[in-house]
Specification:
alpha/beta, 8 strands, 34% helix, globular
């Protein structure tokens, strides 16, 4: 492949966002993506209940806003947003699918990067932007006996939609953000769900809801309202960051919200003790 000015590795939020900024610079660029489609984390994580824990008016590009159906969007809506972005900014001609970068070497004499692509191809570029993620790479712990288990098993980032969980006993290993999303979904169908935790997580209410038709119409016709909501979410996030890092009073308030929520959801005192983290929030 001929030289390019910029090689972007990964076609998730980071890679596509970088590409939109390069469009009118006159620079020649390519987006190298190992999979067969765009989206990164939001393409590969399709477990029940998959979604984002940041409201969509902030979890989207400031220069490309859209009408969201609900406050916290689902995986399918976020993936659709990225596909719309690629079309709106004419990025698809620059995308190379099935192009997994296996190494990157810088040639001092030529001031060029040499990227080895799986299959033997080489791409050279003046600059390389790494936009690879990590949430699409399953980590399977080395649990003794796992190789002897004969039932269906999988990592949440590789969800087996062909296996029905209705009436089954299901074991879930872990208590991270993905588990918090999919356990309530599968608990509605499974006969019993056992969650194996190493450490208890802090869980606070997620104020999600559908936007009404009038709200969506207002956001679409008065863009300033959407920008104001985006700024409000950002400032609240900054306040939360301050609470977690430097304000004992704000941190105590957050812990109080967590405790009140847990006590409203978990009646059994012994179970509440097991759901209580042994580390400072954040």
């Amino acid at each position: 492949m001929p030289d390019v000015d910029v090689a972007i590795v990964g076609a998730g939020f980071g890679g596509l966002g970088m590409a939109t900024r390069l469009r009118r610079t006159g620079l020649e660029y390519v987006i190298l993506e190992k999979a067969g489609g765009i989206g990164g984390t939001w393409r590969e994580n399709t477990y029940p209940g998959a979604g984002c824990d940041v409201p969509s008016h902030l979890y989207s590009f400031s220069f490309h806003q859209r009408s969201w159906p609900r406050r916290y969007s689902s995986q399918s809506d976020i993936l659709r947003y990225l596909q719309e972005l690629a079309d709106a900014y004419e990025l698809r001609p620059h995308l190379r699918f099935g192009a997994e970068v296996t190494s990157a070497t810088f040639d001092q004499d030529r001031s060029r990067w040499s990227l080895a692509v799986a299959g033997g191809e080489e791409v050279t570029a003046r600059a390389v932007v790494s936009s690879v993620g990590q949430l699409n790479r399953p980590a399977l712990p080395d649990i003794p006996g796992r190789d002897r288990f004969r039932g269906p098993s999988w990592h949440s980032a590789r969800w087996d939609h062909a296996t029905a969980l209705d009436g089954r006993r299901v074991a879930v290993v872990g208590t991270g953000a993905s588990v918090i999303q999919f356990v309530p979904e599968i608990a509605r169908r499974a006969a019993r769900v056992h969650v194996f935790q190493r450490s208890a997580p802090y869980v606070i209410p997620k104020p999600d809801r559908l936007y009404g038709s009038l709200e969506r119409r207002l956001f679409d016709t008065v863009p300033l309202l959407r920008r104001a909501d985006r700024l409000r979410i950002y400032l609240l996030g900054e306040l939360l960051g301050t609470a977690l890092v430097g304000s004992p009073a704000l941190r105590a308030n957050l812990v109080g919200r967590w405790r009140k929520f847990m006590e409203s959801q978990v009646a059994d005192a012994d179970l509440r003790a097991r759901c209580t983290p042994e580390y400072v929030v954040g």
